[in-house]
Amino acid sequence: MDLHDNAKKVVVCSALFAGFAYFSLSVLRNVFSPSKDQSSSTNNNNNNNKNGRKSSQCVQTEVSVPIKEDKRWYKLPPEMWGPWAKTIQDRIKELNLQSTANNVIFRSPGRIQSITTNGTSLSSHNTPRNSPRCRSPNNLSKENSLSRSVDNLSKDNNNHLHQGDHLIDGPIIKPPSEIEMINYKKILDKLFGQKNPNLSQQEASVLGMLLMCDDDEVLVKTLTVIADCAVFTPNINVICDSGCLVMLLHLLNSSTIPAVIASTTQAIGNLANGERSQELMRPFIIPLMDKLKTASHLQLTWSLIALANLAHRDSNHIDFLDHLNELIVLIEKGCTRVQLQSLKILVNLSCNQNSIVYLLAARCPVNLYNLLIPTTDEEILIRLCSFISNLVESVFRRSIKHTHLPTINKVASPETLYSGLFGVQAVETIKEKLKTLSRYPNENIVSSVQKIEKKLILL
Known about the structure:
With 459 residues, the chain is mostly helical. It has 21 helices and five strands. Helix 13 (297-310) packs parallel to helix 15.
């Protein structure tokens, strides 16, 4: 009996000792041996240190994606979010809104007719040239140009689009119904007269739909809201993504109501202030230049303001080169404000070296020397001296001769701007005029005069 009890005690003690030993070994192993995660982290840090980076500078494989509902991101502009930083619902809404601006065909028995622009549809986002119905979300956050996504398409009598031998049904947008128009007008009344409008994508789309109505009063009111909202750059980008540009171009080309035309040119002038819109609105340049011949004073002023803003972008300058003489006429016969805006356009064009020879081949204003006097309006004098300074410096830097001028747009030789600046008698006349301006109480004018004199002395 004692032997049996002793055996039990030995077994129990052995089991307790084995358990204690196993537990102790596990504890010691965890304490003195790094875990798998720690070892992998250590290896990553070692590798990063070998590459000359600290662990905090390494590329992370897991990141938190900010979404629109996160209040920390409300202050960031949409361009900084990018397409990946929005919810799926917002992306679907955005793509649906932007798809309406691509391959647009308007069919209505009223004011809105079928719209085509030289066989080209205009939209506010990029679409692959050979995929006119594609709605790719890629690169939507980048600055885009008006898409010519259906350059090779033509429209038959049944409102179908042809691409090669394939027949494609283009998306059709109809003017809003009466019920929709009532709701849209409520939104318009809410936006009208706001001092600091913060335009949403939905509100901008409503403005685009209202531009399709037949009521001239609603059109003028809508255009006024667009002009007011375009004073703020974030609103310009929203309007560009709403399809409004297509309707504005249509109104510019087709409307005959003076109030509508004036409001349209004002809205276009304000929208042309944005860098992105300057690229998108290049198709507006030629229609605006055509309006200069018949526009009223108010329309003329706003058209010139829009053109001056669009001339900030070098890639737009090619569309101005066939209309330089029209700007010269405005400098000769226009009022002070018209002269100023016309000179702003010429100064912007003279900043592009590719436009210099075309400017020199244009007709010299007959009142050029008469404007180079101290009694001329100071703003006009600043632009005129800057314009002449840009031309003179380019001629000497590139050694431009009269024979280098393009023959297509060149006027008769004695009348060119080149002859008006570098002819034998012209040089002496300009030197005399510059002497009277060398003491003018404006640093910009004096600086331009000194640059011109420095170059003309070499002749």
